[in-house]
Amino acid sequence: MAVVFYDLCSQSGLKKLDEYLLTRSYITGYQASKDDIIVHAALSKPPPSEYVNVSRWYHHIEALLRISGVSGKGCGVTIEGSAPVAEAVATPPAADSKASAAEDDDDDDDVDLFGEETEEEKKASEERAAAVKASGKKKESGKSSILLDVKPWDDETDMQKLEEAVRSVQMEGLFWGASKLVPVGYGIKKLQIMLTIVDDLVSVDNLIEDQLTVEPVNEHVQSCDIVAFNKI
Prior knowledge:
The chain is of the alpha+beta class. 39% of the residues lie in helices and 22% in strands. Among the domains are: 11-68, no CATH class; 143-231, Ribosomal protein S6/Translation elongation factor EF1B (Alpha-Beta Plaits). It has helices at residues 11-20, 34-42, 52-67, 94-109, 119-139, 159-167, 204-212, and strands at residues 3-6, 77-80, 143-152, 174-185, 188-198, 221-231. The strands form 2 sheets. A 4-stranded antiparallel sheet has the order 4-5-3-6. A two-stranded parallel sheet has the order 1-2. It starts with a strand and ends with a strand. Mean pLDDT is 79; it is low at 82-99 and 110-114. EF-1 is composed of 4 subunits: alpha, beta (1B-alpha=beta'), delta (1B-beta), and gamma (1B-gamma).
């Protein structure tokens, strides 16, 4: 039976989707499928961070689409009340454009193009250049996709609470993705979870040492190991 979502561009629609994804990694089934792609395409922009589960799912699907694509068939999904196509920006009348150009010419007459630059102007120019340079570096920041093994203390550890504790770690540049439980032996299971990080903002080593293996998370987590680390 197909899953139905309503008006994903409204707050109520996003709230319903967030509640739906609270206990799910994907829209249908246990792997990414065309159902995820359909819902992903219905969102006109990345969801606000307040919708934690939708945001986690959205960034995970984006990472999959960039890295390996999505091949699962899915069970069917219907989107009703999707976002309307953005209206084209109206082109101003030619007369108005000419009038505006004339006003610009008048303004140019008042500017001394060959005047000597003051100390204040020079300082402001240097500050703008530094800001542009810093902004350019920030945009060039790379991302990495990581698969973690998170191991509990014993077979009595509540794995649902363990996952909740792991996902409770939030910071700028960190996006949690899909997860699953993998049997280890003697009734013990480990959590395998995907995450995407912005390299300049998050160190996976510091994430493990300073967040995932200290209180209160280490009440459930014994250790964490990096299974796969790929640059995006």
